[in-house]
Design goal:
364 residues, 16 helices, single chain, globular
């Protein structure tokens, strides 16, 4: 019989310090890179950046859209570059609006605080899941690989990725310990955080199926009903956009504008980096399928990989794959030398992407 949601976390005293160290070390490296980069020309700097606490490099790229939505709501007109903010989902802007009210209206600071707190929560929640299957060393290694992955740079910015990561790990944990409705609510949160959040319905369905008593047909609705919360959240957002913008599929139509995004990533060395990153994650996806991880964990990683394939662009593939936290879990199952090598290579990738992202050469 599985433990209840309130059961003691397995060996938490052995792996929680490592998770905290991974969080602090990765944040320190990100701040170090920001200090070295200084203040490059910021084409995408947000009008909502208040200066002071948050360096301007943490308030560029997509952050300006999140801040604009948090301050004023969705805009009928595109920005100067012709892009609509309809493509961005509302969970992070809503939280930014709430948190900024106690931070003097500094939306950029609110977004960075939310992102980093969500990262820490995601590390701890995923750690509980991983520690159920692995020894403390593997669990700690997995946490380090999550926090120091190439795409983990976005976890420190005012982006929605770390919020999606925390919701994904929390959903998995709640479903694993029979907190079905909590899992459903976190599935809804993930759906309102990023479009790809709806794909988490696949691993969630697997988790529910594994505890489904097929001999009792009456249990079907009770077990699987929370799965409806994700689609309902998406339908609710579509209805809102239909009323506010006159187009219930505005978030999909806006993606067509973003698909024509032109950046300096067309430079040969940047294209090589993006292609190489995609190749590494493609190999990792195959290894994940062949691994002995739980089926639901494999599904989480594969859903992240699908989010890279669907748009047909490699521009943000590292950031999208950062949400596939079972991939670091799989890599952490290696021996001592393999774990150290994985951490070293991952840290190099993290530093490379941090320099490129914060210096404005490559969007996260």
């Amino acid at each position: 019989m599985r433990a209840s949601l309130l059961s003691p976390f397995p060996n938490w005293r052995l792996w929680v310090p490592g998770a905290l160290l991974a969080f602090v070390a990765s944040r320190a490296l990100l701040v170090m890179v920001a200090s070295v980069v200084g203040q490059p020309p910021l084409d995408g700097i947000s009008d909502g950046w208040a200066g002071g606490v948050v360096p301007p490099v943490f308030a560029a790229w997509d952050t300006k859209y999140y801040i604009g939505i948090a301050k004023e709501g969705y805009h009928l007109q595109p920005d100067g570059a012709g892009y609509h903010d309809w493509a961005f989902f509302p969970a992070l802007p809503i939280l930014m609006r709430v948190v900024s009210s106690v931070m003097g209206g500094d939306f950029a600071l609110a977004g960075v605080v939310i992102a980093n707190c969500a990262l820490l929560a995601g590390l701890l929640l995923s750690g509980i899941v991983i520690a159920e299957h692995e020894d403390p060393g593997a669990t700690t290694t997995a946490q380090a690989l999550i926090a120091l992955g190439p795409g983990a740079v976005a976890f420190g910015l005012a982006y929605s990725d770390s919020l999606a990561f925390a919701a994904s790990a929390g959903m998995y944990l709640a479903a694993r310990y029979r907190g079905r409705w909590i899992a459903g609510l976190l599935f809804a949160l993930a759906t309102l955080t990023r479009p790809s959040g709806i794909l988490l319905g696949v691993p969630l369905a697997i988790l529910f199926w594994e505890e489904f008593d097929r001999r009792e047909a009456r249990a079907t609705l009770r077990v699987f009903a929370p799965l409806a919360l994700g689609p309902l959240a998406l339908l609710g957002f579509a209805a809102f956009q239909g009323v506010a913008l006159g187009d219930p599929l505005a978030f999909l139509h806006a993606q067509a504008d973003w698909s024509r995004l032109s950046t300096r990533s067309e430079a040969p060395f940047l294209s090589a980096i993006l292609t190489g990153t995609f190749a590494v994650y493609s190999v990792a996806a195959v290894l994940l399928l062949r691994s002995k991880l739980p089926r639901a964990a494999k599904a989480v990683g594969l859903m992240a990989y699908i989010t890279v394939l669907v748009p047909g662009r490699l521009l943000s593939n590292a950031r999208f794959m950062a949400l596939g936290w079972p991939i670091p879990w799989m890599l952490a199952r290696q021996g001592r030398v393999g774990r150290l090598a994985a951490i070293a290579l991952s840290t190099c990738g993290f530093l490379l992407y941090a320099v490129l992202n914060l210096s404005q050469h490559l969007p996260p």
